[in-house]
Amino acid sequence: MKITHLCKLLGLLLGIIVLFGVVPRASAAEPIEIFDAHLHYNWEPKPYFSLDEVLALFKKHRVTGILATSRPNDGTRALVAAQAVGKAEGLWVVPFIRPYRIRADIGSWFNDPSIYDLVREEYARGGYRGVGEFHLTGRAAATDWVRKTVDFAVAHDLYLHAHADAEAIEILFAHNPKSRIIWAHTGFSLEPARVAALLDKYPTLWGELSYRGGITEGGRLSPAWRALFERYPDRFLIGSDTWINERWASYGEIIAGYRRWLAELPPEIAAKIAHGNARALFKDAAPPVR
User: Would the N or C end of the chain have less CB density within 10 A of its end CB?
Assistant: First the structure.
């Protein structure tokens, strides 16, 4: 009888413990963390979304790292400053120099010596890990000012973030074979076989997948891109490309879209593409920009 009473008492105590949360309860698995390797926080002349708003977006959607750029570079500095003072808790900011002052520079920077001066002056602030995103099509990449920019990046251990077609990618590597290039959009609609050929030819080329067509078919990961990810698990990154306000407004949807097809890959490959490859590239990140 005493044993029966003791069991009932123990059962009652266990129920009270669980009720008040003393024993941890199982929680739903957190979504895979994301390193956003193509982010713009443009200031023209000021951002549409406040710094607090974008930091809240990163936290809400478990974005734990960003490749930060802006036009002009004020927005990037604001993100780095937020990290430096602890305002961007849990966020790793990797700053790149955007070689644009205004949007019109997109079409002329590759022939503009003042842009080369801008890159050097911005670099002198300290902390930058790359140059870009910049835009190049075909032979526009063949100018002396692009070559100077490529050589500057190599000399100072900087990555290049290139929105470029396949021809321009080839020219960038021809300027300096030691270049390290993050290929924004990975050619947009370039056939997977050509993407694979370029990855084989250039070991220091990584594909960033924002706006990249063909990754999914009917809402599922396409066989061609599954094969690419399995063949080159260390060579792809993902990004939001928040170049217009609408991309910020749909930020959560963009990140969720990545997670849907990442979930179809083996976990170790998904983790590399989601965040591991970016962290491997920038593990030696310099001190923050002043």
Answer: N
